[in-house]
Prior knowledge:
With about 60 residues, this protein is mainly α. Helices cover about 40% and strands about 0% of the residues.
Amino acid sequence: MSPLERLLAEAIPVRPQPATPWGHWTQQQQDEHWAALCNTVGTPGHPRPTRGENAPQTAA
């Protein structure tokens, strides 16, 4: 491969793999992710919201 071909190949953007939507995670994966998130933000053991529950909205 020539230097120009290598440069052009590097300049072509590569689309990342799509993230796994929530509906395809197992219950255990969801629980582990929530626990890791809570530990990261300093609220270990905080209950996970239910799937259909919306966060309270604040007026702008």
